[in-house]
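Subject: for your reference before the review

Hello V.,

The reviewers asked for a structural picture of the protein, and I figured it would be easier to keep everything in one thread rather than splitting it across files. Below is the amino acid sequence we used in the manuscript, unchanged from the supplementary table.
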Amino acid sequence: MTEIMLIDPTIKPRKPRPPWLKVRAPGGENYEDVLTLMREQGLHTVCEEARCPNIGECWNFRTATFLLLGDTCTRGCRYCAIAKGKPKALDEQEPERVARSVEHLKLRHVVMTSVNRDDLPDGGAHIFAESIRLIREYVPGCTIEVLIPDFMGDALALEKVLQARPDVLNHNIETVRRVFPRFRPKATFDQSIKLLGRARAFDPNLRTKSGLMVGAGETIPEVIDVLDALRSVDVDVLTIGQYLPPTQAYWPLDRYYTPEEFALLKAEGLKRGFKRVESGPLVRSSYHAHEHVSDEVQAL
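And here is what came back from the structure prediction:
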């Protein structure tokens, strides 16, 4: 008797990746050193948790984006591979271990982000602030970028981070206004724009930054509208990369943008006054992050 294989008609086959989205498997001495350090210190990186395609390149340059506040997020954003659910108790010693790891790696620039911790009174803002303080103490001269959540619109939590004086304040808008409510439940487009505006008002000299992913069903004119919204609150640095669903259970991929389209978006961003625009298929928030502290204006 012939066995009949049933195919679920609701699951669409994956679109084959174009050649410009292929990367080498991670490896190398520096990669292994960073990996070992993270395991020994019980730390997490967004590089691993979010399955970043640039992990091999960045770790071999001894650069990693630390993931604060544990590895479990209280939200259910439909594009993100980080685990969702009830987080473990907050680890107040995490800033010390992060700072010591930055010291061990001899980093000149460090990026710190976090899961959302809506279960905490300040969303974990004090952990960001303490991490910044200790890195300044242990590694003088190291520049610091923080990629923060929206803290549910809590202006006092944001101020707690800003008072620690990071060099770059990053908050990703992620997608266009129309897609946003389904892409990022529990957040709002306007709340994210307001956060970036508050950061600029707090310190006119602070470098502010945001990023989005394309290929999730938006149109190029809608992306241009996001650029205008970010510039309306004087955001300095913009990153634009290809959306890649972690698995078929996540928000579906609509299409792959071409390198030419990424070049067009970069040109549109620079035309609008962003000081730097990183726009390309494999660009992520921390891509070339050490260059984003510079006051030098990027050329086309």
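For the response letter, the relevant points are probably these. DSSP finds ten helices and ten strands in the chain. The chain has one domain: 24-293.

Happy to draft the paragraph if you're swamped.

O.
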